[in-house]
Amino acid sequence: MARKRDPDREAQRRSDILQAAARAFIREGLRGTSIATICKEAGISPGHLYYYFPSKEALIEAMAEADLAAIRGYAQHLHTLDELLDAAVASSEFMSHPYNEPGKLLEGALAFDLHAEATRNPRIHAIMDRHYRDISALFGERLAAAQKAGGVNAAHDPVKLARLVGAVREGLLVMSAIGPDMVDAEMRSVARRMLEAAARG
């Protein structure tokens, strides 16, 4: 008699495998990490892993989908211009927010590894492209509302302005990963003032 499937248990097992894979990927990179290494980190057999993820590529895609969905969930709770700008220049610790579950898989160098993989892997590229377009559209709506309220210059294209805010966020994250001392509180304050001046001016 076949054992009855337990969806909650399977969801937890998938999450455990993703967390283990993230630890392995952080050490060895997306391309350098083998299935054997992931299985050892997770304490499971290859057959067990393949039950949940048919390939390493599928596992990477699931990690990307999970983290990016968490970021979009967090972004849904940013409504005002001030909230958007605060998030744009915040440290990574600021993003450790209850809305940001189950995130934190693709942090630091691993996040940059995913971006590099998107230039080579069409499926990852599609996931990342959709994410950035969705975030730009969401923030564009917020900025368009701020325009109507007189808080953002009416001459701006709100979606392009949203992309500028996002680009500053990504740039600060990259720079802080390379040299944390280069992105201190003063630097974040300057970046925020510049973004606010651009939005209002």
Explain what the structure shows.
The chain has 9 helices and no strands. With 201 residues, it is mainly α. It has 2 domains: 54 residues, Arc Repressor Mutant, subunit A (Orthogonal Bundle); 143 residues, Orthogonal Bundle (Tetracycline Repressor, domain 2), CATH 1.10.357.10. Helix 5 packs antiparallel against helix 9. The longest helix is centred in the last third of the chain and has 27 residues.
Please write out the topology.
Elements: H1 7-28, H2 35-42, H3 46-52, H4 56-75, H5 81-89, H6 108-118, H7 122-148, H8 158-178, H9 185-200
Helix pairs in contact: 1-2, 4-7, 5-8, 5-9, 6-7, 7-8, 8-9
Secondary structure class reads: mainly alpha
Radius of gyration over C-alpha positions, nearest whole angstrom: 19 Å
Indicate how many domains the architecture comprises.
2
Q: Helix segment count?
A: 9
**Uncertain parts:** 94-103
Overall pLDDT: 88
Percent helix:
over 70%
CATH level-1 class of the largest domain: Mainly Alpha
